[in-house]
């Protein structure tokens, strides 16, 4: 039997919020669930589950739906390294206090 850990509440809420946003974006563009399903190569049930925030929805369906809705750039910007504040803070903590020249290769003084 496969053991799966429970989904943390903040993650579950984010999935539901994302699903609602995708549903609203779809309806604003006057697409039916069947239209989106056909364009992303999935079933209408998959689109329903995605819009409901179901955690088992394949990431490829989400990405393709965002492409159809014209929002794929948003997906691409999720973890851009220049705006990864946590990663930048961790990198800054590892910057050495001093930089010393290597003693292996002393300069000869001449060119």
Tell me the major beta sheet: none
Please provide the ordered H/E string of secondary-structure elements: HHHHHH
Mean pLDDT: 89
CATH class assignment: Mainly Alpha
Structural class: mainly alpha
Features:
6 helices; mainly alpha; 111 residues; 434 Repressor (Amino-terminal Domain)
Structural account:
The protein has a single domain, classed as Orthogonal Bundle (434 Repressor (Amino-terminal Domain)). It starts with 8 loop residues before the first helix and ends in an 18-residue tail after the last helix. It contains 6 helices and no strands. With 111 residues, it is mostly helical.
How are the SSEs ordered, and which strands pair?
Elements: H1 9-28, H2 33-40, H3 44-51, H4 59-68, H5 72-76, H6 85-93
Helix pairs in contact: 2-3, 2-4
Concise structural overview:
The chain has 111 residues and is mainly alpha-helical.
